[in-house]
Amino acid sequence: MERRLGRVIRSMSVSGMVGFSGVGTGWEPAVDMFETSDAVLVYMDAAGVDPKALAITVDGDRLTVSGERRFPESEVSCVHQLEIEYGPFQRTLHLPVAVDPEGASSSCKNGLLVVRLPKRRPRGKVLIEVT
């Protein structure tokens, strides 16, 4: 609801093209998260975001993606519709299982960022000797 209200407010002013300054961390891109037998897959809507400007970090059970979608350089004389959100963003997600960040990979194609996080393999039963 907060995102929808933000869109409505931004659609009423040209200042919405570059986001509100000082309001949280900006906008939040849509995310889908899936789990396979060996990995967690995160798909993020990154349309219009330069892949080289994305920062992806894993800290314990949290994945954070940040970046910025810049307003297209052009001379605007009148806005008729404004729904796409611009400006900096940061999205932090709670990971459902332990992952191995060393084996993580990502790609960005056709405006879709895909982050693959392999699950941390359980070590199984460990016998500890008493000395």
The total of helices stands at 1
Unreliable residue runs: 14-24
Fraction of residues in H or I helices: under 10%
- The arrangement of helices and strands along the chain is HEEEEEEE
Q: Compute the gyration radius: what is it?
A: 19 Å
Write out the strand line-up for the largest beta sheet, numbering strands in chain order: 1-2-7-6
What would your notes on this structure say?
The protein is mainly beta and 131 residues long. It has a single domain, classed as Immunoglobulin-like. It is 8% helix and 34% strand. The chain starts with a helix and ends in a 13-residue tail after the last strand. The relative contact order is 0.24.
Q: Which tags fit this structure?
A:
131 residues; mainly beta; Immunoglobulin-like; 4-stranded antiparallel sheet; 3-stranded antiparallel sheet; 1 helix; elongated
List the helices and strands and how they pair.
Elements: H1 2-11, E1 31-35, E2 39-45, E3 55-59, E4 62-69, E5 87-94, E6 105-109, E7 112-118
Give a quick rundown of the structure:
By secondary structure, the chain is mainly beta. The protein has one helix at residues 2-11, and strands at residues 31-35, 39-45, 55-59, 62-69, 87-94, 105-109, 112-118. It has a four-stranded antiparallel beta sheet, with no helix packed on it.
